[in-house]
């Protein structure tokens, strides 16, 4: 009979489940944006392809990390696919502003989650902490690139970022059956304790 999992092991599995699902959603967002990209945006197409490549690598890295920790993917990956595709399709209708506002909002939300995870993982799974830190560097580069190109804060960009950040948090919470909310509180408690 297998030993029961410790609270830390359960938390690590949740981190992997949420991160893998998030990368799955990001792949859908960038895939949809590429498919619906306005004509004449060659520089944007090159950046989206590179970013999509990063997200595919991140998703694979988290999937590989799951197997050694006996974690399973989120049961609601289809929610991430559909939600990501919808978000990518809608934001691409606003062209560059929509695409960069989407990237900035999603990556800023992701960055906050990764910061909490890293603080916990440094004490409980240094190998996974290193992986998350490496991935975070690329996610921050996506965020910086998008924010630099958004330029002055337009009303459209600000509105999109607010709505997309909220939608990202809701999608994370719904698809993980509230795990992301509980995860955030448990991470904060583990870091403080």
From TrEMBL:
Q: Enumerate the UniProt keywords alphabetically.
A: Iron, Membrane, Metal-binding, Monooxygenase, Oxidoreductase, Ubiquinone, Ubiquinone biosynthesis
Plastid is among the record's keywords: no
Q: Enumerate the GO terms in the molecular function aspect.
A: 3-demethoxyubiquinol 3-hydroxylase activity; metal ion binding
Q: Which pathway does it operate in?
A: Cofactor biosynthesis; ubiquinone biosynthesis
The record's annotation in InterPro entries points to: Ferritin-like (IPR012347), Ferritin-like_SF (IPR009078), Ubq_synth_Coq7 (IPR011566)
Asked if the record carries the keyword Hydrolase, the reply is: no
GO BP annotations of the record are: ubiquinone biosynthetic process
Kindly provide the name given to this protein in its UniProt entry.
Answer: Ubiquinone biosynthesis family protein
The species is Asticcacaulis excentricus (strain ATCC 15261 / DSM 4724 / KCTC 12464 / NCIMB 9791 / VKM B-1370 / CB 48)
């Amino acid at each position: 009979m297998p030993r029961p999992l410790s609270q830390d092991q359960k938390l690590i599995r949740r981190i992997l489940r949420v991160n893998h699902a998030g990368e799955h959603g990001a792949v859908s967002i960038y895939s949809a944006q590429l498919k619906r990209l306005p004509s004449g945006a060659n520089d944007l197409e090159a950046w989206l392809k590179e970013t999509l490549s990063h997200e595919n690598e991140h998703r694979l890295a988290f999937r590989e990390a799951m197997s050694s920790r006996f974690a399973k993917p989120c049961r609601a990956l289809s929610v991430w696919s559909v939600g990501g595709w919808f978000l990518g399709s809608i934001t691409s209708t606003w062209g560059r502003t929509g695409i960069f506002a989407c990237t900035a909002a999603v990556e800023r939300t992701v960055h906050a989650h990764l910061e909490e995870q890293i603080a916990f993982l440094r004490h409980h799974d240094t190998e996974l902490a290193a992986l998350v830190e490496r991935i975070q560097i690329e996610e921050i580069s996506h965020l910086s690139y998008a924010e630099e190109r958004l330029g002055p804060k337009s009303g459209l960009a600000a509105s999109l970022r607010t709505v997309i950040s909220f939608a990202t948090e809701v999608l994370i919470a719904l698809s993980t059956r509230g795990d992301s909310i509980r995860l955030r509180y448990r991470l904060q408690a583990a870091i403080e304790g």
